[in-house]
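WARN no homologs supplied; continuing
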Amino acid sequence: MKPEILITAKGHAGTQATLEQEFTCHKLHEAKDRDALLKQVSASVRAVASFGPTPVDATLMDALPKLELVSNFGVGVDQISLEEAKRRGIIVTNTPDVLNECVADTAIALVLCTLRKLPQSDAYTRAGGWLKAPFPLTTSLGGKTLGILGLGRIGEAIAKRALAMGMKIRYHNRRRKDSPFEYDPDPVTLASNSDVLMVVTPGGAETQNLVGAKVLDALGPTGYVVNIARGSVIDEPLLLRYLQENRIAGAGLDVFVDEPRVPPDFFKLHNAVLFPHVGSATVETRKAMGDLQVENLRLHFAGKPVRTRVV
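OK structure emitted
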């Protein structure tokens, strides 16, 4: 018999098709009565395939007493209660590394788009503005300092690209790394030493509103912030106000606090570039993420160690 798993949300179509071929799948997001479904499968579901922001918390874990594994689609696991999983002996996996290059591409694209105002210049041309006057001058990347808040694997891939574009690199982590780049002891110092602050930290309670007034003030009216991490890392209402008042020069955002609901006032800004969380959104990368998620499930049910264990 196929092992039984619970799927938390609608996700990557190819991955979900594979899951349905190899496992008996119960879809939490399609259940008319969530509690009834969980009661029905409580004695048989041994793994959860986690997609998107749907919480895998203590309540869900308690409803699945046979749960052994949570296999997450994505690197970020802030929607999964890791301490509760650890306490119950539940393995948690994610899909790191396979998306590093793709996310780094998106990060640099946001830097380019934000400083050079490339989406705005496209809109200007389409609206006939060029017939009346040249598009206003923008800001160069070369010679600017990129401050990377979270120099992990993705941060290092971003740094590699930024160096090739003539940028200088600084960084802040909770712990200093063996790195050729200049280290700053806190986010405020990093922001004060940077022209562009690149946010690459994990989400979760520890980093919520990490980029607040002190950091934005340190960036100042000529500084830019780019976020490809989690919307929760930046104080979003405060960022909106700073952009409206030109207290920072601009922002490039791929993530938001309440996705896909973006505060409408962001749409009125001339100094913000907004992406719909497309950091890893390519055919190739999403397939690789799904393959790794499925592989962790296969390995676990075969009695073998999983590949990318978080807990």
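The chain has a mean pLDDT of 97.
OK
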